[in-house]
Specification:
The complex is a heterodimer. Chain A has five helices and no strands. By secondary structure, chain A is mainly alpha-helical. Chain A has a single domain, classed as Four Helix Bundle (Hemerythrin (Met), subunit A), CATH 1.20.120. Classes of the chains: A mainly alpha, B alpha+beta.
Chain lengths: 158, 618
């Protein structure tokens, strides 16, 4: 029997992995479109472009990470799903929100900066490193969201 | 440390110029300053063209036989051999360039012909030779395409006119048709056709039936293609001599560099200036002396307004980290080389973010092999060494935190996943140390420049405040509180000292105390050390869990599990090495450099032998 609490915890895991994944997918696709344009002009830049395109991909990983910890704590992995109280479930759902929302939005915006970095790499390949750093600045907030989500999930004693 | 620079001023005879420049290039210690509006030595333009051509030829050969791999080692060439002229290579470059031209023009012609064949396709059934299509004394003709939709309607309508129509095959533009009419009706027919969106066709200027012309063209195109194929075979054969061209290319580049700046000249003499490291002047003198006794070479301090290039010199361990600094910007001349203080922090942070001893081992071994085998130079070499050191740091942190490929095994310190608060405290502690170091660097700079007041009021006051706050939290007793008050009071009283008027001074001081929020956000930024470590660890855990689930499903599952383990961990290493490097660098750029660093130096690029394909040995 699944309790409402357990279901809510599932909802938390679902939005963490889902929304952050969507953010990364959009971000990576924005960067990828810019990247294809640059590569069509100069295929040798593939390596640099790929690095920049990969940067907005981390939000999805962070989302997966929180989802995994929730699922692990609830006991899905080892097969005995725990019966959570409604409050426990709600707490896990809320704990998932920072990385879900932060991952979604920062993934999209990081993708835009990555696309700009790819244009930078097209015009001045020697400055690609700076483009990478600028792109990573956006990720800071996904990292902070991940951290607070983790601390909250960790704080829910089951 | 930043190396002091001197300006070299050299006068010598013009007849010795080439050999002196050659000697300076071999020595590689002078960065020549081009004289105003100088375009380089005569002939530089020709060398530039030759470089272009050779570069094109090498690229073409790469296309024929495939590029040599990214990290392939370079062929050593003795210096004497490097200087020898290579007339054959020049011929070869010419030959390859001609081949390339011929092949591409043949292919283009073939493509044009094939396009013509395609355009003739709807006209193949026409039994009138193309050259015979033309107006006669009493008739006119129209040949072209009629949109498919309008065809039936058109056939009906045209019956009423005195005209003869031949309807042929379909083309993308519409149905091909030829219409003949009496000359007197010509205008009317033309108007009628226009009304039906008729488009005129332009035939190729050839003689014969359309089908004959088409097959002739197709034959010709095939022949051109096979000619091009033959030439390509020929090109593949000479591509075996790519080595020669590569050596020639490197020679040309060296020559081009030598000819870039010749200085000012009179009828018999010339004069150049250049930047030299203050400790390398003797070598420059020796290099010139070996060529000729007839010279005058002086080294002077940079004049007011002249900005020499920045050269950083560091010990073996911190030198690779110059790459990280250069990625940001070189230090301004007269400021501070940050590498010796930045390197240990970069090292620590990188390992902390990767924090898996297993990954560290893989990374260290892999990069050790790459560094030993390929000996990458310059920035690539520096970057790989930074990551190699990072791998070592990762092993240490992995052992401390007990992370081994995502499994926990006897942490020496504690497991961050289990005790997140301890881990956060560690991050902030290291962050505080990092920030304080940055402020001390600023203090050092201020004191070195004689700005003692800035050092005390802008940095020391903050350090006292922080030390006080720190002691308040740790030690019982009042000492911490008094220190904090002393620090804060100093900041309020002196922060606005540059403002005019007592009130502006006071508010300026209060405002500068508000900077504390900046320090707090700087400090919080170090939580990424934990978060990125977490990411590595949990993804590794996910990979292990998935592999375990697969493992239990039977023999195929075991195979799949092995693939997931290897592929997954490999992917995790790549993505997190990227993250660790970028974020470790970011902590230096924003949090650390923000406290003291003065950017804006320019690169020191001496006249030297810079090769792409060969290694010149002495």
């Amino acid at each position: 029997m699944l309790t409402l609490g357990t279901t809510l915890a599932f909802a938390g895991a679902a939005i963490a992995a889902g929304l952050a994944g969507v953010g990364s997918a959009i971000g990576v696709s924005i960067a990828g479109q810019a990247g294809s344009g640059v590569i069509s002009e100069d295929p040798d830049k593939f390596g640099n472009v790929l690095v920049l395109q990969a940067l907005p991909g981390t939000q999805g990983i962070y989302g997966l990470l929180i989802a995994f910890i929730i699922v692990l704590n609830v006991g899905v992995i080892d097969g005995n799903v725990k019966e959570l109280t409604t409050n426990q479930g709600l707490a896990l759902l809320f704990a998932a929100l920072p990385i879900a929302i932060g991952g979604l939005m920062s993934g999209i915006y990081q993708g835009k900066v990555a696309a700009a970095g790819i244009y930078l790499c097209a015009k001045r390949p020697e400055e690609t490193g700076k483009g990478i750093i600028l792109t990573a600045m956006v990720e800071t907030y996904a990292v902070l969201a991940l951290l607070i989500s983790f601390i909250m999930v960790n704080g829910v004693k089951l | 440390m930043l190396v002091p620079m001197k300006k070299a001023i050299l006068y010598a005879l013009k007849e010795d110029r080439d050999s002196i420049l050659l000697a300076l290039q071999r020595d590689g210690n002078v960065m020549l300053i081009p004289a105003a509006e100088e375009k380089g030595l005569p002939g530089a333009e020709n060398v530039g063209n030759e470089v272009e051509k050779t570069h094109g030829a090498i690229k073409f050969m790469d296309m024929q036989v495939g590029k040599s791999s990214f990290l392939s080692s370079r062929t050593p060439v003795a210096y004497n051999k490097f200087l020898q002229n290579m007339p054959e290579a020049e011929g070869l470059a010419e030959q390859v360039a001609t081949l390339e031209d011929k092949i591409s023009s043949l292919r283009n012609e073939a493509i044009t012909m094939l396009a013509q064949v395609e355009a003739l396709e709807p006209w193949l059934r026409l039994d009138i030779p193309l050259e015979a299509l033309g107006p006669t004394a009493s008739s006119v003709y129209f040949a072209g395409y009629m949109p498919e939709l309008a065809k039936d309607e058109f056939v009906n309508d045209i019956k009423d006119l005195t005209a003869e129509t031949i309807i042929l095959d379909e083309a993308p533009e519409g149905r091909a048709i030829v219409v003949f009419a009496y000359k007197s009706d010509g205008a009317e027919v033309k108007h009628f056709l226009k009304a039906h969106d008729f488009v005129d066709v332009v035939f190729p200027k050839r003689i014969g039936l359309a089908r004959e012309i088409a097959s002739d063209l197709a034959d010709a195109a095939r022949m051109k293609e096979s000619l091009a194929d033959n030439l390509e075979e020929e090109a593949k054969k000479v591509a075996g001599r790519r080595d020669e061209l590569q050596l020639y290319y490197d020679q040309l580049i060296a020559k081009q560099d030598r000819m870039a700046a010749g200085g000012l000249e009179t009828q018999k003499t010339f004069f150049v200036q250049g930047w030299v490291r203050a400790d390398k002047t003797d070598e420059v003198v020796r290099a010139v002396k070996e060529v000729t006794p007839a010279y005058d070479l002086n080294f002077v301090e940079p004049e007011e307004g002249e900005i020499p290039p920045t050269v950083m010199e560091n010990g073996k361990l911190s030198r690779p980290y110059e790459f990280v600094t250069e990625l940001y910007s070189r230090p301004k001349i007269g400021s501070l080389d940050p590498n010796f203080m930045m390197a240990p922090f970069h090292f620590i942070f990188f390992g902390m973010m990767l924090s898996d001893a297993g990954y560290g081992l893989v990374l260290t071994i892999l990069l050790y092999i790459v560094l030993k085998l390929f000996k990458p130079q310059d920035s690539t070499g520096k970057l790989l060494t930074v990551i190699f050191f990072g791998g070592i740091s990762t092993i240490i942190w992995g052992i401390l935190f007990g992370g081994w490929f995502g499994l926990e095994w006897h942490p020496l310190l504690f497991a961050p996943m289990k005790e997140p608060l301890k881990m956060l405290a560690l991050c902030f502690g290291l962050g505080a140390l990092h920030l304080t170091t940055g402020m001390c660097m600023k203090m050092y700079l201020d004191i070195k420049r004689g700005q003692l007041l800035s050092a005390i009021f802008d940095e020391l006051s903050w350090l006292i405040l922080f030390a006080g706050l720190f002691l308040m939290a740790l030690l019982p007793g009042e000492i911490g509180k008094y220190m904090a008050i002393l620090g804060a009071a100093t900041i309020i009283l002196t922060g606005g000292r540059e403002k005019k008027g007592i009130i502006a001074k006071f508010f300026g001081g209060l405002l500068s105390l508000y900077n504390i929020s900046g320090y707090v956000s700087d400090l919080l930024s170090y939580s990424r050390l934990f978060a990125l470590g977490l990411a590595t660890g949990v993804i590794a855990m996910v990979i292990n869990t998935v592999a375990q689930m697969l493992w239990e499903t039977g023999p195929i599952g075991v195979l799949a599990a092995v693939i997931v383990l290897i592929g997954g961990h490999f992917f995790n290493i790549i993505i997190n090495v990227l993250g660790s490097f970028v974020h470790s660098s970011r902590l230096q750029y924003i949090e650390f450099f923000g406290k003291f660093y003065e950017a804006g130096g320019r690169a020191f690029i001496p006249l030297a032998i810079r090769t792409k394909y060969v290694d010149v040995t002495k």
